[in-house]
Amino acid sequence: MKISILTIFPDMFPAAFADGMIRVARDKGQLELDVVALRDFTDDAHRTTDDYPFGGGAGMIMKIEPIDRALASLGLPDKGRRPPGTRVLLTSPQGRRFTQDVAIEYAGLGHLVILCGRYKGVDERVTEQFVDEEISIGDYVLSGGEPAALCVVDAIARLLPGVVGAFDSVESDSFHSGLLDCGYYTRPAEYRGWKVPDVLLSGHHAMIAKARREESLRRTFERRPDLLEHAELSDDDRRFLRALARGAGERG
Ligand code: SAH
After folding, report:
1. How far is the CA of 232 from the centre of ligand 1 (A)?
2. CA atoms of 51 and 173, how far apart (whole Å)
3. Farthest-apart Cα atoms in the chain, separation
4. How far apart are the first and last CA of the chain?
5. Per-residue pLDDT tens for 57-111?
6. Ligand 1: distance of its center to the CA of 19 in Å?
């Protein structure tokens, strides 16, 4: 998969792309990252990428020409004629909410292009003419789309084939199957008198799996009950949740 990032701040990316799962994904040849500096596509001495808004008001607007030229340099067909595996995103607080399901969807694409806004945003004609989808990482306003692009790249990288060695680790992570993940412990088994739950030391795999599943269900019930509506639940899960709702699932 290839991800191209269009930005006026290309220096924000190299350190983030040099470590962790993004690095693994690149090393394994699963992910090609291409940071495109919008200033390289300006034609004035000041390499201008923004200008004052028509109609006045505070804040600058990103200009259309450098973005058009940068997209053209990627060899992309016009919007509407792009192959299904290609998607041009604009980072925007007004966009579709970025979730694990969206990350899974994007991980199946061949070429994702992420345009990072700055200032008051981009000329609306960019959105109308070039952008397939606006994407938001949450209901707050960043000063630029770069941190949002990083979130998207990171969430995708760990889903690409062979990047996370044990994929069941990804599958038990929060949201992947519609539940929050359980809590985890590591050595030492006791620290300053604080003990790890006995069941985790029992060596009894079926009991451990059941305890973890129930902890996932309990957390989701307490913290994010909205997720339970779409979660994949077994009959045992439903029984446990009914007990929780009756207040019978108290922590032992
Ligand atoms: N005037 C715009 C906000 C501009 S913030 C509005 O109110 O909708 C500057 C840029 O930061 C945006 O163009 C966008 O690219 C990025 N950005 C800000 N918040 C974001 C969010 N929650 N998710 C994704 N990108 C965001």
Report:
1. 33
2. 43
3. 71
4. 47
5. 999 999 999 999 999 999 999 999 999 999 999 999 999 999 999 999 999 999 9
6. 26
Report which of 229, 222, 228 is spatially closest to residue 247, judged by C-alpha positions.
222
Please tell me the pTM assigned to this model: 0.95
Q: State in Å: Cα 59 to ligand 1 middle.
A: 13
Cβ of 147 below 6 Å from ligand 1: no
Whether 149 contacts 116, CB under 8 Å: yes
The residues with which 86 forms a beta bridge, in sequence order, are 111
Buried b (16+ CB within 10 A) or exposed e, 15-32: ebbeeebbebbbeeebbe
Cα separation of 154 and 51, whole Å? 32
Determine the atom of ligand 1 nearest the C-alpha atom of 117: 15
| Helix H or strand E encompassing 182 | none
- Cβ of 142 closer than 6 Å to ligand 1, yes or no, is yes
C-alpha 136 to ligand 1 mean position (Å): 8
- Would you say the CB of residue 220 lies under 6 angstroms from ligand 1? no
- Alpha-carbon distances of 166 from 159, 163, 172, 198, rounded to whole Å: 11, 9, 11, 25
* Contact (Cβ atoms closer than 8 angstroms) between residue 203 and residue 183: no
Q: CA 110, CA 86: separation in Å to the nearest integer?
A: 6
- Please tell me if the CB atom of residue 73 comes closer than 6 angstroms to any atom of ligand 1: no
93 lines ligand 1 (CB under 6 A): yes
